[in-house]
Amino acid sequence: MPGLFLHPPELWREVAETLLNELVVAEHEAWVARQEEMSLLSQHPIGRDHAVRVTAARTSPARSCTREPSARR
Fold first, then answer.
1. Residue 43 to residue 64: CA distance in whole angstroms
2. Angle between helices 11-25 and 28-43 (to 10 degrees)
3. Is the pTM here over 0.90, yes or no?
4. CA dist., res. 16 & res. 53, Å (int)
5. Which residue ranges of the chain lie beneath pLDDT 70?
């Protein structure tokens, strides 16, 4: 896969965004397939930067929610 080139270069971002959007809503085998694809994208010399950027944008502190640990009784 490292020999893969996309033109125009913005396609890398579009591929990463589409894949992440599908991964978020996928279930069961579809989730596994998207996860494997994201892993492959993350290993590509160019694709990895885009995969990290779109994932980081999705998980930024302003968008994330935290859950308080439950109290022990």
1. 25
2. 150
3. no
4. 9
5. 1-2, 60-73
